[in-house]
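ok trying this again, last paste got cut off
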Amino acid sequence: MDNKLIVYNSLSRKKEEFKPINSPLVGMYVCGPTVYGDAHLGHARPAITFDLLFRYMKHLGFKVRYVRNITDVGHLENDADEGEDKIGKKARLEQIEPMEVVEYYTARYHREMDKLNVQRPSIEPRASGHIIEQIELTKKIIENGFAYESNGSVYFDVEKYNKQHKYGILSGRVLDDLYSNTRDLDGQSEKRNSFDFALWKKASPEHIMRWPSPWSDGFPGWHAECSAMGHKYLGDEFDIHGGGMDLLFPHHECEIAQNTASTGKNTVKYWIHNNMITINGQKMGKSLGNFITLEDLFNGTNEVLEKAYSPMTIRFFILQAHYRSTLDFSNEALQAAEKGLARLLKGVETLEKLKPSNQGNIDAKELKNNCYQAMNDDLNSPIVIAHLFDALKTINSIEAGKETIDTENLNVLKEAFNLFLFDILGTQKETQNTATNNEVLKDVVDMVLNLRMQAKTNKDYATSDFIRDELTKLGITIKDKKDGFEWEM
């Protein structure tokens, strides 16, 4: 069969055949999380989308160098050049070091991604570990005439860049529209134009995270990190840059400008964006306060949840929609995904028990080919899932004795399910009632810790310490707070 992978390129706004620059090596960069809070459902979608691409490309025989960054400095509030650093603000409020915030939430992010069966990237660099590279990137852009210093900060000159290149080629934004739709904000008078963006920011006296540079003690702008780390690990030209649709402008647009201004090249060949998860039709995210953390989903602790949902239910829910379509959260949709995945996994159990006949009337190769065609058509996971559901009818029909299948086709059928359901879609078999067990575990641990609090109130420190020590042995970490406690496994 024709096994060409077709992907939708956000830059050309059309589907294109994927052809690596340096076959068989594929360079892929995906914008990772800003680690100042728990991972939520919105974080799960890009992680699962590019895990699907990572898995499938490796299956096709490509060697993939997958870089997914951790943003731990420079991402200011409101995705702009003003306000506090998100991680610095968290550190100030909790009176801890910024890197404590980073380590804590990075570990929690990894834990949640592991539960979702998201494979680790080849390289996971941190912005704070690449300050030198970001300074060098800024120097190069200044040398090439596309940036200017102002009061110790350095800004990218969008207007000057637009005269020689074209700003807005990814998002379709026109500079004239930016002139009319932007306004000067407090603290931005040092910019030549309000839409110029920071490459380096001079730190205010109270700013916690700062580094020396030729211009000031300060910190890099948010957009600089991905350009600097992409160049370091994938070169001046690489295949794929991915992330959520919400990053298309301004983040990825600014990256293109930085890349072109520093290297003179169109660094990225294919731009791939997943669409948003919405709740009641509105984008889900921390800034809007309508997000649901993955931990809440797994434990059923958010008030909008009717029950707890297992990690594989969440993964299957996301894969049931094409990555470029919006996906609206609801309990009904999650419960439908839960039932659908259970049906497929039950079908796999039935498939493993089937006995071949000497002759059969089933051609399982068609299922395999159909699944390949769907994956090759811009990673159409919902169509793959639909084909697998259709195959369940065949499996049940064989079990009921209405149809027969020979050894060769039975093996192909088993191979197709194992390949597409498990290896490529990345689902896993779960023990029954996993979500229920999680709820019971949470209730039991909360009850024990409430007994510990009561013991402390009664100054029975021996009992309090005993409970803490025994839970620690079981792998449960307890964090005492003024108004109670937190715990995690």
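PB: full thing came through this time. Residues 6-274 form a domain with the Rossmann fold fold (CATH 3.40.50.620).
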